[in-house]
Automatic annotation (TrEMBL):
UniProt binding sites for ATP: 8-12, 134-142
Organism: Syntrophomonas wolfei
Annotated keywords: ATP-binding, Ligase, Magnesium, Metal-binding, Nucleotide-binding
NCBIfam families reported for this sequence: MTHFS_bact
The protein's enzyme class: ligase
Family: Belongs to the 5-formyltetrahydrofolate cyclo-ligase family.
Top-rank lineage group of the source organism: Bacteria
Entry keyword annotation includes Magnesium: yes
Name of the protein in its database record: 5-formyltetrahydrofolate cyclo-ligase
BP-aspect Gene Ontology terms: folic acid-containing compound biosynthetic process; tetrahydrofolate interconversion
Residue sites binding substrate per the record: 59
Source organism phylogeny: Bacteria, Bacillati, Bacillota, Clostridia, Eubacteriales
Length: 194
């Protein structure tokens, strides 16, 4: 048990360092490529209500794809941390209607919406593995949020290619994604949404 925790902490540290070492121009270019792949992804094309995320620390920048999808009349949601244990979805109405959250991440202002309204979720992570499990920052917000979904929702992991590994040593609380998109590839874990 402790060995797994140490391995996961080591993976987090390694990926944070690798992402931090990227030049802003490289992160921007790779994010653009990922955005193009996401545009073509059938479950996202069909989705009317998409939850994304505001990037931090050289995460994949989803702003262009989220703004493009919003321009097509789709509803876009971003996460907001409500407490030490809870994350909610809030409709995104423009970057001017966001504020810095407890972790320095832009969060939308406004009321939380029922998670049942969401059709697809773009999920961030420090690491994703071949079975769709992710490793985040270790607070468990996404795992609790995803585990609490009342309906089946398309879950798409979004990361850079170097963040894909064979095994993230998941625990019983981790929730796998159905698909992973990087700048170079797509990894299908579950075809049920195609």
């Amino acid at each position: 048990m402790e060995d797994r925790w140490l391995v996961r902490q080591s993976l987090r540290k390694q990926m944070l360092e690798a992402r931090s070492a990227m030049a802003a121009s490289e992160a921007g270019e790779l994010s653009r490529r990922i955005g193009h792949r996401l545009e073509e992804l059938e479950p996202l094309r069909r989705a009317k209500n998409i939850m994304g995320f505001a990037s931090v620390k050289n995460e994949v920048d989803l702003r262009p794809i989220l703004e493009q999808q919003r321009g097509q009349g789709k509803r876009i949601f971003l996460p907001r941390v409500e407490s030490a244990a809870e994350m909610v979805a809030v409709e995104f109405r423009g970057w001017e209607q966001t504020a810095g959250g407890p972790f320095g991440i832009r969060e939308p202002l406004g009321p939380a919406v029922p998670a049942a309204e969401i059709d697809a979720i773009l999920v961030p992570g420090l690491v994703f593995d071949a079975r769709g499990y992710r490793l985040g920052y270790g607070k468990g917000y996404y795992d609790r949020f995803l585990a609490g979904m009342e309906k089946r929702v398309f879950l798409c992991g979004v990361c850079y290619e170097f963040q894909l590994i064979d095994n993230s040593f998941p625990d019983s609380l981790d929730v796998p994604v159905h698909w992973i998109v990087t700048e170079k590839s797509e990894l299908a874990i579950n075809w049920e949404f195609f």
